[in-house]
Amino acid sequence: MNKIMLVSIRKIFLPFVACMLAITAFAFEGNTIEGRWDINIDMNGKTAPAWLEVKHSGFKTLVGQVVVVVGSARPVSKVNFADNKFDFSVPPQWEQGAGDMSFSGTYENDQIKGTVTYPDGKSYSFTGVRAPLLQREKEPVWGTPVKLFNGKDLTGWHALGETNQWVAENGVLRSPKSGSNIATDATFKDFKLHLEFRYPKESNSGVYLRGRYEVQITDSKGLQPDFGLLGGVYGFITPSTMEAKDAGEWQSYDITLVGRMVTLEVNGKKVICNQAIPGITGGALDSKEDEPGPIYFQGDHGPIEFRNIVITPAK
């Protein structure tokens, strides 16, 4: 093939490719199911939070990920969407039953609604709205640090279950066995949070930011970094290094949350640097991402202790 012919082919072919890409991009812009959704599931009169992200892969396929009440974000290999109707399914995690978990619904007036069927065959209705961007126009101005735990009693905290196993002893907020989670009475928007924690071997807990985003606490020394281990934002963000100490030692988190952007230091070492949390994690109290929320600690996965819990809210 001579150079003149090659140049001619390029002149014809490249604009054609560019045109097709533009058409495809335009088609996906109109594909209204794409984006992130904060979802409420009506489970027999009780509202349970969920989250969905849909995005395109290549020119034709829609994929995504979903968080359903508990567990980590689950990959969605294909989302079917046509005539403002959609459906997809994912394998179960902690749910009972042999089947997949399936979603079907419709898009209307920039909202979604439909039905989720659990692996045990039970179905529940859901509604969803677009998740907020949570972008901040300015850098935060930090206020005065506040001690969230007085070291003497549970003033400022409340158990989230029917019974409370949490106790305050010698400056330590302690859950001696699995039981209720615990949350602050106060709610927060953007903040810096310092806390220290200690767990016995093979125990597990977590710190929920605004009651929606879990930073994992679990016995992890010697393991490779993972979003399900110490220092990970559960299901979403893997820390750069594993900085866990031995079980039984006091350890520390320093967490900054501004909008969706999180920075985390584990035992004085920065392992997450200003990364976006895509959506709520399993175990979230609600899916109202644009509202302030409490700090809450998991107490249902084993013994855990906390101390020196200090928050610095943004003004």
Automatic annotation (TrEMBL):
Source organism, top-level taxon: Bacteria
Keyword vocabulary terms for this entry: Signal
InterPro entries: AL/BT2_dom
An example Gene Ontology molecular-function term: hydrolase activity
Signal peptide: 1-27
3-keto-alpha-glucoside-1,2-lyase/3-keto-2-hydroxy-glucal hydratase domain ranges (all copies): 146-311
Full protein name: DUF1080 domain-containing protein
Protein source organism: Panacibacter microcysteis
